[in-house]
Amino acid sequence: LGGLMSLLVEMSGIDKFFPGVHALKRVRFDLLSGEVHALMGENGAGKSTLMKILSGIYQRDGGVLKIAGQEVSPSSPSEAQDLGIGIIHQELSLMNDLTVAQNIFIGREPRKRFGRLDEAALNAQTAEIFASMNLDLDPKTLVGSLTIAKQQMVEIAKALSFRSKVLIMDEPTAALNDAEIAELFVIIRRLKSEGVGIVYISHKMDELKQIADRVTVMRDGEYVGVVEAAETPISQIIAMMVGREVTEEPLEVPDLKDAEVSLEVSGLSRGREIRDVSFTVQRGEILGFAGLMGAGRTEVARAIFGADVKDAGEIKVHGRKVSIKTPSDAVGAGIGYLSEDRKHFGLATGMNVRDNVALASMDLFSSSVGVLDEAAMAETAQGYIAQLGIRTPSDVQEVRLLSGGNQQKVVIAKWLLRDCDILIFDEPTRGIDVGAKSEIYKLLEELAEAGKTIIVISSELPEIMRLSHRIAVMCEGRLTGILPGGKDTTQEDIMQLATQREAVMHVAETIQ
Fold it and tell me: Which of 279, 378, 423, 458 has its CA 20 to 30 A from that of 94?
């Protein structure tokens, strides 16, 4: 990567301490102009901490940071922006009720005489940035009306409005579909051609080969190594990340022909989102739901759980018809739902592990006069911490401080304590690193072996194929087929059904 590329960022010997934790230990990282440099590592490896030092959110406790050859110490994000460093966080920070242009230039709006806002100049400057990105978007559009993908583009435009020469992207494709990812990659390649250096953080290993030039790997707050993306097998990068080789064993599909049908859904409908969906799931089975964005998979889960009101359909649990109009009804019927957005709908992130585990089962710990048995809550939480391998200093650690994988385990513990027989996992490994993914996979398999009934919704086809005993495929609100799990089904088989837009139902061979 020599040639005409110049060294934009040079970090060496970076140390960072938090109370009782040596978070970064003499880490090094560099970035060239016109390259995409992927920063990889398991959750808790120190990636975000390192980038927060580069972007001025944290200050380093040791080491050297140079931008374009000059040693700097940005003490705030605004100082980092003045140095040409922009960061796009995983959680978007836009204001829905403001226009695109107002979001991009908030606090820096062009003014007329007497301090009046110059709307025309504001929109013109925004349009100029969009033109440079080849992005067709009206600056006067309200951000709240945009798709997540378009909001992501607005965040990029905002970073570029500071004339950023260094752009840090943290999980930029986490909420995007394949078409939106392709659109984002076009913009990234254009930025590369203009000399912008991009730090790319992602847990999606397949993206490395598509977009990255080099890969730096971190583990436990330390630098492990840097490799060329095109020349390095994904298996080698994974081994560097986790300190061991992660292998996914071929799925063993159990014989469930005599197993009880735990959940039966018949004629489930809700507008055009869900159209006459019917399926069964047996005790001890993992049924995967595949499909493209907007296929209706999450909508089916939410209707079963009572989070959305269905127009029609019947639900039976263990052969008995149940009336589910609210999530409380679903929990009472033994159904737990783990939302794809665990931070907003699965956890109280400001509360500790103990309270989150008990959140759906407070009645178990309350006396007749409403006094909570804190000792029993602590004992229960500690039991699940041990059982599920939740990595936390204690049961009173705030959940927001845990890694994504450990947060997911806390949600699982919450529903296990509620003793739900049927567990619906919506995107169970979104934002979770490769090592933690293997732990979640193993945990789901153990739950199924213990007799739980599992539904898994995932946008990652390898994940669906890895986990599922059967695979239900949806397209435009319809269930277009049910395929066998294991080695008999290919990604092409799934995609054929996922793009099958006819109303006719084609059901593939299934495991009875």
Answer: 458
* Paired residues of 350 in beta bridges: none
**Cβ atoms of 464 and 478 closer than 8 Å:** no
> What's the CA gap between 211 and 143, in Å, rounded?
27
State pLDDT tens for residues 215-254. 999 988 999 999 999 999 888 887 888 775 555 565 677 7
Asked whether the CA dihedral 281, 489, 483, 258 is positive or negative, the reply is negative
Round the average pLDDT of the chain to a whole number and report it. Answer: 86
Q: Is residue 331 within 8 Å of 418, Cβ to Cβ?
A: yes
Q: Quick one: which of 503, 105, 41, 65 has its CA closest to 242? A: 41
CB contact at 8 A, 395 and 381 = yes
Gyration radius of the chain's alpha carbons: 25
Q: What are phi and psi of 6, to 5 degrees?
A: -110, 160
Sheet containing strand 70-71, strands side by side: 21-32, 7-18, 62-67, 70-71
Q: What Cα–Cα distance (Å) separates residue 232 from each residue in 45, 237, 240, 470, 505?
A: 20, 7, 11, 34, 43
Q: How far apart are CA 22 and CA 15, in angstroms?
A: 8
pTM of the predicted model over 0.70: no
Is the separation of the CB atoms in 261 and 281 below 8 Å? Answer: yes
Q: What percent of the chain has pLDDT over 90?
A: 43
Tell me the C-alpha distance between 271 and 408, whole Å. Answer: 31
**20-34, 138-152, 309-323 — which is least confidently predicted?**
138-152
User: How far is 106 from 434, CA to CA, in rounded Å?
Assistant: 37
End-to-end CA distance of the chain: 55
